[in-house]
């Protein structure tokens, strides 16, 4: 090969050129497959790897087994190690410390409760998912990732989940669509509703893109698919919190829309909800009628156990346990034993002794882990609300959309947790923790001012 095109022409030329390069502090990149990647190529590689991690989370957290989500922090950690550039922003800032502190303290409440109640370190199985989210945030602090990966992942995941729910309900004929164990109809349906609401939150971001029509249609379809998942699952607990979630969406976007567009949006949403209610394939009308009838029977003193009356009795039982030990709680094993003993002794309905959680996140945390468990759970809800709510008034589309998604996360989990103990499952803690730090990590780096063209 001629000199100047890769290799020098002679051995003496090679020695002279090598010496000159050493003296000048330079080196020549070897050609072929063993060449060291240039900084530009390395940056491009880690950015794509981080983007794929965010997309994988959006696509996979309902379609794949829940433990596969551990791949997300691994990919982000690898991308952070490959990153050549300095972190986009200083880390940790005051808000970052709040996020990490609330996750660490919530996990710690599980770990401490175990030895305190003679249960060893069984609390680690509930603590590690939220602690893994802390490592994820540290990795994200070193990366700058286009939020298009995140919104695209949520939309694709919602559409895939909606297709799966429709297949189960309409083709396989299952009574209620569900997902992988330990997910079931309640967890599957409510988390499907959450990802649909997050897709609707992303519509404002989509309108700021160059290809706004395609992104808007994709996220709108994701929002519709999430509502459909909830309907096919028959998870009524999610419908209780739906009005509040829709109010959050209105507070974020409604005041910026002309009155005719506000009325159009409300009308279309109303028609959609009515359609899901009256369509016999969804089973929504039957589930709501059953709930109303069960409540009427309970108030009339009917002793027949339904899903509604059973929940009310479980809340009564958990409240009695809280009253007996409000500070320390009973522990996970102690809660179950005490509920079983009270059922056998006739202090409550015998059939309720087989349930291992209170079907209410706040009561479950208080009864099992005492006042520290309740306080850390409330902090897990309230700190993200405090951090994100100011962004609903942000002038940039990207930050406002991410802030809206960040507000919807604790609002939705708080609503879901009124009638079921979502965070009693490690899968619930992993989804909440990862979604929180991914939304926060994206929000903290989003531009403060609109840029020309792409804003993602």
Give the fraction of residues assigned to helices: 55-70%
Termini, distance in Å? 46 Å
Number of strands: 0
Structural class: mainly alpha
Low-confidence stretches: 1-40, 452-456
Q: What is the gyration radius calculated from CA atoms?
A: 26 Å
Write down the overall mean pLDDT: 84
Instruction: Give the biggest sheet.
Output: none
Oligomer: single chain
Report strand %.
Answer: under 5%
Number of helices: 17
Structure, described:
Its main location: membrane. It is a multi-pass membrane protein. It holds the Pfam family Wzy_C. It is a single chain. The chain is mainly α and 456 residues long. It has a domain at 39-254 and 357-445. The chain is built from 17 helices and no strands. It has helices spanning 11-24, 39-63, 71-82, 94-116, 124-140, 147-171, 185-201, 203-206, 212-233, 236-253, 259-278, 284-299, 307-324, 332-344, 361-388, 397-416, 426-445. The longest helix is centred in the C-terminal third of the chain and has 28 residues, at 361-388. It is globular. The two termini are 46 Å apart.
